[in-house]
Specification:
about 180 residues; alpha/beta; Rossmann fold; 6-stranded parallel β-sheet; 6 helices; about 35% helix
Amino acid sequence: MKALVVYESMFGNTRRVAESIAIGMSEYADVTVLNINRVNPDKLVDLDLLVVGAPTHAHTISTSASRKEAERQSTQPARRLRLERDASGMGVREWIESIPAATGLCAAFDTRADVLKLLSGAASTTIDKRLRRKGLRAVMDPESFLVSIQGELNPDESTHAQEWGATVARAAEMPTFT
């Protein structure tokens, strides 16, 4: 099975989760991990599974305004936030809009604050809906990975991501989806 894990990342947490998901998937799939700004949407046709993730901004996926605000926050020394190299560019919202209609399998994930989901929202829910509108079929419910109020990935989330990645890849192999 050929899989692609695509992510948007501002401060590195979503990238780290994407990399851990790929480790979990690697026993079951030939998997590549890429920032969305490095993926040509026309090259998605030969994939069996597309996994897409993003940080949660204001209860959903980022907008150009919320990405600019994240960039502004990274300039505040007290915040100790470091902007990722590929953070400037399009977000998952624009990237999904740019991909052609597809048939195949997908899964969605996000990083969000470690508070009640009702308070933080979850970008993965919106990602899942938009991928389904493109014609993809989800193999799993959307998943969230938690970030502390200080902006650091919670300690057990890398293991959680590896386990989720393995579960996603196994689900994609099930006859229900082939």
